[in-house]
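hey all, quick one before standup. I had two proteins in the batch that finished overnight and I want to keep them in one place so we stop losing track of which output belongs to which input. First protein below, input sequence then structure tokens straight from the run.
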Amino acid sequence: MKEKFQKLLEDIKKDLIFLANEVEHNIRQSIKALKNKDMILAQQIIERDNEIDRKEVEIEDKILTLLALQQPVAIDLRFIVSGLKMNNDLERIGDHAANIAKVVIHLNGKALPSSAKEIYPMSDLACKMLHDAVSAFIHRDTELARQVFEADNEVDSYYEKIIVNTVKELNDKAGKLEEGFAVARVSRFLERVGDLATNIGEDVVFMKEAKIIRHSFHEEDEE
């Protein structure tokens, strides 16, 4: 029975890794589509989001079945609870990739304001946060998870900088409101990716240390 339980846990972990890889790939591809004005790629990302949604439901079903039949305790229970939350966060990241792709299609090849150039390093950082958060989850690495928290401040700084520069540019160039709004939306989606990666990191700390630090990790660090 114990061997079967551990195999089910391992299967869930593998499924979460697969889903994480898919959503990270979709985020990177959506930014590529934005940069290259590639509407065909954007449409492919939107269509792939249906597969991500199906995978999320499949993983949730496995987790709930395991909870009902095996009644795990201690760190195994915390792993399952964290995995359930991570599964939902990954699906939401997939939605943001699809949202960026929809912006690309809506723009229909229009040139973006120069403030958009900050989107590309911002997206690289947000994807790194996601990658590190998932790696922390796999290896139960709370130190790496806390590095994800710190990186979120930089993602927020990118977002604020992009918004300020976009507004300034729109004041100087009339008739670019639609393109400026597109930049603001994309940067907001990436800011949310950073937040969701942070959520996963917080769940790693809960899983390993049995501490709930959501909304309070800054105070904890100061102590």
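OK second protein, same deal, sequence then tokens:
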Amino acid sequence: MARSENAPIRNPGGAPLQGVRVADFTMHAAGPFCAHMLSLLGAQCIKIETAVRPDIFRKPHPVYGRMGAASFDQVASNKLSVQLNLKSPEGVDLAKRIVAVSDIVAESFRPGVMERLGLGYEVLKQVRPGLVMVSISASGQTGPERGYAGYAPLFGAAGGLGTLTGYEDGPPTEIRHVMDHSTGLTAAMGTLAAYLRKQRTGLGQHVDVAAREVACGFIGDALLQYAATGTAPRRMGNDMPQIAPHNTYACAGEDAWVAIVVETDAQWRAFSTVLQRSDWLADTRYATAASRWTHRRELDAAVGAWTRERSREEVTQVLQAAGVAAFPSYTAQDIVDDPHMRERGAIKTMTSPQGETRSVVGPPWRFSRSPAALERWTPALGEHNDYVFGELLGLSRARIEELVATKVIY
């Protein structure tokens, strides 16, 4: 088990969370994305996993045209990986030793699982006084539905987001990947807040994040509308009340689309001028935002006829030059090839120790003094066993080999 050449073990100096260590027990997407965000801020994140029950996204199976899931590569990169069989008492003991040298614990099992493993917050805060622990689940650590299973589409359904998403004559459209990432990002924010308080007071705490409540937070305006009027808003497709045009429109080319929003009267005048439709400015049907909304379907047809004769890039350029919001509906390939994203480092190219290259999503922040970074390739299962168990925890080579042979490190 020689140490990997997969980039430095220690994080680059100067990152905001330099010196912070995270014991990462998360699986699937939401929890791992939380820990991934912390790693991008410079925290050393140790992913604790096992060959007994590998993360479903690490399991080799054909997806996206490759044997490994891209979703795992995204949320596991920048982390260290160790193997521990948590069904073994010795494995649990080693997990506690990792927690003892960590500042933050992240987990995303169903409520009660960490307690059954002997790794609940009440136990771990004795192991590491001042510990900040974040638990990410579908419905939270308390309540009658705490044990419910949940995946991304269910988060939006339970949180009321799905019923607002889709067309008015169609069923609810349950948002998928974005719910996992939104939950993970919210959990990272809560974790940082708890860690900041710990730095000020010395007191750690348990952060309980329910994915369905994250989704519910996205529909606060709908809840207020219902409270005020007794009428719940319904699905509207791409419509936005009192704003028109507000839609995506087909452009020249295969499956090419552009999003256009005209919000103010000044933008409406500029938009009409670009489309050479001076008649619209004299048409009483379009004189106000409310009247344009009433006649939005006629507007959509006319705008669509104009965009279909032009590329999405041309539409974007001429409208943006006039001060009207417009942008192509990008595919993943478009984003990878976008020079603006490349220049900002939002998309970068990484090369593995074996010479494989791929485009990756960089940190979504820019710090003037303490840069965040994506530095490490996706770790192999247990790639950093030697570093964590040997250098960090001080186990001898003989002891590590014994634990491997008895499938504690497994």
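Flagging for whoever picks this up: The first helix runs from residue 30 to 40. The chain has 18 helices and eleven strands.
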